[in-house]
Amino acid sequence: MRIKKLKAGSLQMVTFIIVVIALLLSSFLILTHVHKRFRLQTNHIIELTKLVDRGFYDHQAQSYKGNDTLTIPLMDEDYKSLRVHKEFWGVFEKVYSEAQIKNKKLAKVAIVGQQGQKSKIALFLNDNRKPLVVVGITKITGTALLPERGVKTGHISGQPYYGTRAVYGEIKESKKFPQLDNRMRQYITLLSRGEWTKQTEVQYFDLNAKKKVVNSFHNNLLLAYSPNEIMLTDMELSGHIIVHSNTKITVDESSLLTDIILIAPEIEIKDNVKGTFQALATGSILVSDHVRLGYPSALVLISDYEKEQDHFLKMTSKSQIKGSLLCLGKTTADNYQAQLEIESDVIIEGEVYCEQNLELRGTVYGSVYTNNFIVREDGTTYQNHLFNAEINIDKMSEEYVGLSLDKSPKQVMKWLY
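Now predict its structure.
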C-alpha cells in the first residue's frame, strides 16, 4: 500500500485551521465567562439599587433618633449590608442610604416628607373661640377644620362675601393644632443660634474666593459665615452649603441658589430672584416682587411674639413659591399684628404653617394651618377674617410631598446629589 504524501502547504493549512478553531473556542469560552460575570455584576447593581431604595422606606419603621446611623438587618447572606443615616436639612428630613454587596457599594441621599394630597385638608384654623369670617371673593375648596363656632360671612369696607357657600367642601371641628416634629424644631433652633456646628462636620469657605461653588450632599457641609451683612451678588451656590450671617443676608437677582440654606436675623430676597433654597430668620424675611422659588423651597420665621419687637415674614405682589412657609413661635391673646403676610397676586403651591397671625390675601394651592387670621383694612383690624383670599387643596399636585405633620408613610421629596 502506497502512502500518499501531503504537500507542505496542506500541512500548513491543517495547522492554520486547528489554530483558528482553538482561537474560536477560546474566544467563546472567554465570552461566556465575561457574559456570566457581567450578568452577575448587573444583578448585583440591580440588587444594590433595590437595597438602597429599601433604606428610604425601612427607616420609617425603625425607632431611632435623628442624626443617627442605623444598620438595618437583612435576612439574606451576610455579604450584604444596609446602613441608613437620618438627619434634618432645614425643615425637611434628609435620609442617606448606603448598600453594600461584597466589595461593591451604592449610596443615595434624598429629602423625604409627607404626601400633601393624602391629607386633603385645605384649612386648619385653631379654636380661639372665634368663628371664621369670609369676605369678598374668598374661596376655600377642600376640607376645612374650623373652631366650634364655625364659619360665617361678613363685610369689610362695604364689601360683602360674593360666594354661594362659605366652604366648598366638608367642615369639621378643629381640635389639636397639628404639630411639627419636635426634633426638627430643636434642630432649626440650633441653626438659628449657630450652635449646630457642634454636631456637624463643617468645612468653612470664603464667599469672595469663588463665584460658583457646588458641594455634593455626600460631602461634608460647607459653611460661609460672617458677623456682618452678606450680599449674594453674581453668585452660584448649589448643594450641601449653609450661608450664615449674624446680621443680614440679601439675595440679588444675579445670584442662583439651589438646595442651600440661608440663616440670618434678617433676610431680604430682592425682585426677580429665581432659585430653590431655604431661608431661616429670627427677625424678618422680605420677599420682593416677581420672585420665583422652585420646589422644594422653604421660608421659616422663628421667633416668639413680643410687643416691643416687630418680626415678620412677608411675600409681596406677584411672587411664587413651591414649598413651605412657616411662622413658628409663641403668641399672646393681645397680638394684633400680622407675623406672616401674603399679599394679593402671590401664589403658594404647598403649605402655609403659622403658629401666630396670618394675613392671607393671595392664593394657596395646598394647605393652610394657622392659629389666627387677621386683616388690616382702612385703619381697622379684623380678627379671624379672610378677605379676597383663595385656598384650594384640589389644585395641589398629586405628587406633592411636604412637611411631616403626622405619622403617615413618607415619600421621597427630592433626590439629592
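The longest helix spans residues 8-58.
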